[in-house]
Amino acid sequence: MSDPDYKLLDSQLRALLADETDALASASNFVALLTQAMDDINWLGIYVLRGEELVLGPFQGKPACVHLNVGRGVCGTAAALLETQRVADVHQFEGHIACDADSRSELVVPLVCDGILIGVLDIDSPTPARFSAEDQKGVELLCASFCELQAVRGRFI
User: Fold this and answer.
1) Range scoring the smallest mean pLDDT among 7-16, 100-109, 136-145
2) Which domain holds residue 33?
3) What residues have CB less than 8 Å from 39, skipping those under 6 apart?
4) Is 157 a member of any domain?
5) How confident is the model at residue 114, as a pLDDT?
6) How many domains does the chain contain in total?
7) Higher pLDDT pick, 4 / 155
8) Residue 41 within a domain
9) What is the structure's pLDDT at 45?
10) What is the CATH number of the domain that holds 47?
11) Contact at 8 Å (CB) between 60 and 52?
């Protein structure tokens, strides 16, 4: 297993979303692009902030939890703290919400667009400690680019 070329993915993401005017379509293609590029993942998607909860948005994988509370679980913690959560073993994360019993590790990046939290990008793997520091840095780069493109158009999911 090797890390994807995140700089190349960033260029591909920018080209893919450059002329897109629909936020939902952009989010869907962002999720699809990253899913195709990453090995050994079983779920990848966006949870969108709606009031005080995260609501399921575009994703690829098994059906998932629809509503998550901000401040609870890995996704809710990332949203509450506005900090990426890279969890080697989700079973050791206090308050982990098991949407898929097969998931063992998780990477969650807050999506902060134009200074506003719009949601989180959530990636799950069935392999413990699947996500490296390079994965975290690369996915954070992609999330920043996604948010930059969203903010430029003044549209969010």
Assistant:
1) 100-109
2) 6-152
3) 1, 2
4) no
5) 86
6) 1
7) 4
8) yes
9) 97
10) 3.30.450.40
11) no
